[in-house]
Structure formats: C-alpha cells, structure tokens
Amino acid sequence: MRLGLALGYWGRGPSADHVPLAQEAERLGYDSVWTAESWGSDVFTPLTWIAAQTSRIKLGTAIAQMAARSPTTTAMHALTLDHLSGGRVMLGLGLSGPQVVEGWYGRPFPKSPLTATREYVDVVRQVLRREAPVELDGRFHSHPYRGEDGTGIGKALKPITHPLRAELPILLGAEGPRNIAQTTRIADGWLPLYWSPFRTDVYEASLDAAPEGFLVAPMARAKVCDDVAEGLLPVKAMLGFYIGGMGHAARNFHADLMARMGFEEEARRIQELFLAGRREEAVLAVPDAFADEISLVGPRERIAERLELWRKGPVTDLLVLSPDRLTLRTLAELN
User: Fold this and answer.
1) Tell me: the pLDDT tens digits for 25-58?
2) How many Cβ atoms are within 10 Å of 205's Cβ, its own excluded?
3) Do 141 and 183 fall into the same domain?
4) What is the pLDDT of residue 16?
5) 280/305 same-domain check
6) CATH code where residue 133 lies
7) Which of 217, 230, 233, 263 has the smallest CB count inside 10 Å?
8) Quick one: pLDDT at residue 215?
9) How far apart, in Å, do the first and last CA atoms of the chain sit?
10) Number of domains in the chain
11) Quick one: pLDDT band at residue 269, thresholds 50, 70, 90?
12) What count of other Cβ atoms lies within 10 Å of the Cβ of residue 216?
C-alpha cells in the first residue's frame, strides 16, 4: 500500500506550509501528493507550484470538479502539467453535487450522472490519446457542439500539443454503488470519500469487476496523539460539515453514503441539526465510532494496528490528510 499526502483545498488563503509538506512527503518516500477544489482555490495551480519544487512525487487532483471545466479544458490542464512535471500527473475527477454545480458553477446538474461522467472521461481519453480529432455524439458533452443555439460549423480537432502519456491515469471520485461499478470499467482508479477497513463489504459488489492494477485510493485524516477523542475532533468537524451542509436536505450524497455504511439514523440527525443552524451540536452528533473507522488517530501503536487492517483490503494508496510532520513520518516508518 503506497502513501500519498492529501493537502485539500485552501481556506481563507494559501497555506505557506503546502510546498514544504510536499517536499517532506517526497523525502519520506510518499508516492503522491494531492490537491483539491471546492468554490475557492482551483486544483491545478497549487499542484503546478508544487511540481516546480519537487522532482519525483506524483501529482494528483482529488478532485478536479467536472462542472468547472469542459472535458477538453481539463485534458489540456492535465497534459500541460504532465509535460512540465516529467509525467507525474494523476487526474482525479468528480461531479460534485447539485448545490455546488448549480449554485457555484451556474450549470445544471446532469439528470443522468453516470452518462455525463462516462462522456466526460471519453473526451479526456480522446484528447490524451490523440489518435484522431475529438468526436462524440453525446447527451452532455458533444464534440463538435451540435446544440440548436450553435452555429453548426464547429470542427472536430486534435490537440496541437502531443501529450506526453496517452494513458495518463484517470481516477474518479464516486459514491453511489452504480457509479463505483462504472468507475471500474472506465477509469484507472477510484477515490473513495469515506473508507472503513471494518466495512469493506459496503463496496464489495461494486468493486467485483475491477481489473488487475485498478487503484483504490481513499483519503484518511491522521494524527499521532495520546488522546484519541481529542484527535477525532477535526474528523468530526469535517463530517459534520459534509454530512450536514454539503448537500440539500433531500439530496446529500455524503449523508446517503454514511447511511449505507450503517449509520443512517446518525446521518439524518446530523443533517437535521446542521440545517437548523445548530452546527456545534451537529459536530458533536457525529459518532466517534464512525469518525474513528475512517481515520488513523491515536498513539503510534494504535495506528500501527489500524494500518494493518487498511493493508488487508483492496486499498492500493492511502492518501493521508495531515499537516503534522510527526504523523507523516510515523506513517512512513510503519508502512
């Protein structure tokens, strides 16, 4: 199981520690470093900054939001950075949810998410392979554009720049069972939002047809500390926000996932509290058991035991979300 460093997205502004953390991870033998985006900092610019100040570590997007860019634009970003970094890019993509897609990007959330994802990946693959002009008679991502409001004179094109790697790895952030199953067919890997080594059966059917070499790269918050309950507080704060606020009361993919993982009553309670403006209570309502299962928190010996469980399942890459150098070093030593 390889280790990756997950840096996430910026808060109020850029972190002065992201490049030093990436450099430390590279020195410790981490295989990859990953950036993210929501509705603030973008995913590619920080990764490019990191690429310029590292030499070996792979560079991943976890995730680049599909609504933010047309698939050809995303492919251009990926092939450009892949050249500049010497072939280190891993392209993680995701749909996000209706509130972000429609509220921030001002675009309709696709009525058929699986079809939209499949078409998006198809176009990106065509660009990177550069075998012919990009053409797709699609429902969401037609190339050339064939809508009634178009001119009708669009021309199918090949990228001017020759991509460095035709088979640049593409991973998808998928949550629903059918979406995960499709991911095993059209992508090189999967970026789970929540992974519990105690509940691998939740994903077993969806991963049944995964080909050899398929990447499973979940993100986990980690902290070496003596007090497990205290160490879990940032995990619970994150879960309170995602389960309670990152979605509509009637359509929240994160809450639905928590429910499928055996915590349905708790997930609905977190939503209820958060949407009522009782955010602190929502965080406290997150079960310690769930927060603990999806993270690596506690003394070194406890983390070593838990790490063994992560290794026994299908996980190929553990993306560590931690700004703490002691934690990063400990995981490198234990792995």
Assistant:
1) 999 999 999 999 999 999 999 999 999 999 999 9
2) 11
3) yes
4) 95
5) no
6) 3.20.20.30
7) 230
8) 98
9) 8
10) 2
11) confident
12) 23
Cβ-defined contacts of 105-109 (< 8 Å, 24+) = 105/65, 105/67, 105/68, 107/67, 109/67
Rounded to whole angstroms, how far apart are CA atoms 40 and 112?
A: 26
Burial of 107 (0-12, 13-18, 19+ CB in 10 A): exposed
Question: Is residue 245 predicted with pLDDT exceeding 80?
Answer: no
Please indicate, yes or no, whether residues 218 and 75 belong to a single structural domain of this protein. Answer: yes
The model's pLDDT over 124-156, given as tens digits with 9 standing for 90+, comes to: 999 999 999 999 999 999 999 999 999 999 999
C-alpha span between 211 and 189 (Å, rounded): 10
Contact 309, 292 (CB under 8 A): no
Q: Do both 71 and 180 map to the same domain?
A: yes
Q: What is the mean pLDDT of residues 231-257?
A: 79
Do 111 and 256 lie in a common domain? Answer: no
- The strand pair at 219-224 and 296-298 is best described as parallel
Residue 22: CB atoms within 10 A of its CB come to 26
* 262 within 8 A of 201, measured Cβ to Cβ: no
Same domain, 105 and 181: yes
